Every structure is written in C-alpha cells, then in structure tokens.
C-alpha cells in the first residue's frame, strides 16, 4: 500500500507488486544516483529536469535524505512514455510517480498555479518554466532546484541566503501565499521548529493577521499531521509557544483563547524531559492540565486522531488522575503495555532532576515488588480460577465474577501465591457468605 499527498489530499493507492518488485529490492545505488538517472533520461530527450524542493534544502544543510522530487518541463504524458514503471497518482496536478531500481520519485511538470478559491488548493495549473515554478512554492528555503548533471544549485528566490541567515520567509508576498494555502501558516512554524530557524517579521505578521482564517480551509486531519511531524523534533515546545503567540493555537483549540503566553510556556516546559518515543497526543494533553476523560475523547475526535492515540491519552490521564491507588490497582496499571512509557512521561513534570529520578525509582521499586502478580495478569493466569470455585460449589454467574476479582485482590494484598491460601481467605469474606445465603 502506498500513500501520496497531493496538494493536501491524501491519496491511497493499492499496488499489486510481484515478489521481485523494484520497490522491494535495491541494487546498490543510492536514491540520488537513481534520481539522476531519471534526470539524465529526460535530458537526453531534450527536456529540462532538476531535483526540487525539500531535498535541495536538506542537501545544502547536509541532512541526508532519500526523499527526492523531480521537476521538469516534460508533460505527464511524456513522462509516462519515457519510463516503463509509473503510477499516475497526480496527473491532474502534473505529477507522475516513477518507480526505478527500488525507489519511487514524484516527477512533476513545471507549473504555475491558477485560481486559488478555497484557501487550500489551486483550481487549475498551467505549464511553466523552472523560475515560475519556483515562485509558486511556499518558502524560499523550499524553492530551490539542483541540477545533478552539472552539480549546481538554481536559486530564483533567495533560498540559499535565507538558509545561511536561518530564516523562514515566504516566496513573494506572505499575505498572498497564506491566502492561497492557509496550511502554510502551520508549515512555517514546523520548519522553524525543525531547523531552529526564525520566521522573518513580515511572514510572522501575515500569520498573525490570517490565523483566524485557518478553518475551514484546512482540515483537522491536516492539522493533526502537522502536529505529528513537529513533535518528532526537539523544539516542539517552541513551536506550540510560537503558534500561540501568533494566534494559531487558540484557533485550533478555542479553549486556550485568553490563556497568557507565559502559561503556555509553563505547560510545555516538561517537553524537554519527555522520552523520545512520546506520542504526539501526550504532548498536546499538556496544554490542558484540567482536562477530563470526556474532554479527551472530544479532543481526539476533533483532531481525528487514531483510536490508538485516544486509548493512550485516556490511559495516561487515568494514571495521572489516580488518588492513593492500592497495590491491586498498581498491578493492573503495570501490566498494561503502555505503563512504563506513561510513567516516564509523567516523571517529566517533576520539579527537577532529583525529583524525576526519585519518581522513576519509586515506580521501578513498586513494579519489582509486584512482578509475580503483574506477570499473572499479563498471562491471564490467576491464582484462583472459575474451575477452582466450581469445585467449591460456586455456580457460574455474576457472583462468581465478583469472587474471582476478590480472589485476585486477596492474592495481591496478602502476597498469596497458592490457591488454597487465597480460597481460605476468600471464604472469610461477605461475598462468599452471600453465595450460600
């Protein structure tokens, strides 16, 4: 299954691949060499072709990448004729995916976008030159081309200079760029977050003035995808603070309207101590310290998160909300596959390194002491089973279920590991007496 994103529309494509498909096996050449073969093939037929966009930026920053897009003056139909294995996922946008030697490359015709109407996508496009194609892109650092045949950069938009200055700047008038595609406002902050760059003042001003127009042009799914991309970088806390300062965060989460910027800074201050594997939703929850379980469900539904994300958020919240849990409760918490990650996330909110270390030590010590019970819960191998209770004359039903739960509590509270011991104590309970009333 392959997924392609074309101007904000997620396209899912099912391919029937043979066992020796080039998507399964590489042949010793890296992506740059293979992409250069595509450029060379186009050049040999009289077309202009360059590497485009993000790969060029990353190349200049010496960030290794295999994600290479190619831009050319060849039409989609001509591209399909030239290459034996293609996927026509974006013909309407002038995009063809070329499959070659174990890699896949989006090859797009130079274009000029025409008529943005919905604040997200152009209504149509016209073939154009490389320079015109560069000028319709979002930010200067993403608007450069690389010619692999002559090993040279083509920069029509000042991208190299802005890379050197560590600046995020729109190509052309930022107000026009954001009016064309409002998702670019969030993308500006994502790139600033990723590279620890600054957004230049006029671009910031345009974001602040247009932040309340983000919806409905941009879908909630796209916002969530941007959050997920940002959260893998160390500066996600900075990104959320900047989003709030420029008005985007309160547009996405209206309940943050009126929240002071210093308060947002305080809420994200724990991010630096959270483990790398922290799910995006766990970061977002820190923005809402008093959130309830129902509000978490609404939040996840609004952001269109996965069921897995919602379950994780609810489990994390449940642990954080516990008041004086007993050993039985802790045993079930520690038996959950997400428990250790959640404990690490919660430790990040402690006041300092010493407090965080003590927090983790206490959990590790408690977990170690409850290890046999945790293992039984995970293995679904209780000390006392329904079969054991039947042999004691207990009939199946609701009461048996309650007795099994009570038997588990007894085993944990009293450190009983033999069924005879547990049943003996179980017979002393009011539940057992009810069974014979």
Written description of the protein model:
The protein is α+β, with helices and mostly antiparallel strands. The chain has four domains: 22-165, 2-Layer Sandwich (Beta Polymerase, domain 2), CATH 3.30.460.10; 182-321, cca-adding enzyme, domain 2, CATH 1.10.3090; 322-378, no CATH class; 382-435. The chain is built from 23 helices and 13 strands. The protein has helices at residues 31-44, 54-60, 76-82, 130-135, 159-165, 174-180, 183-195, 201-210, 220-230, 236-245, 248-252, 261-267, 280-285, 293-303, 307-320, 327-335, 339-347, 353-369, 371-379, 386-391, 398-413, 419-426, 430-435; strands at residues 2-6, 9-13, 49-52, 69-72, 86-90, 95-100, 103-109, 111-116, 122-127, 145-147, 152-154, 167-168, 198-199. The strands form four sheets. Strands 5-6-7-4-3-10-11 form a seven-stranded mixed sheet. A hairpin with a 5-residue loop joins strand 8 and strand 9. Helix 15 crosses helix 17. It is elongated and about 90 Å long. It starts with a strand and ends with a helix.
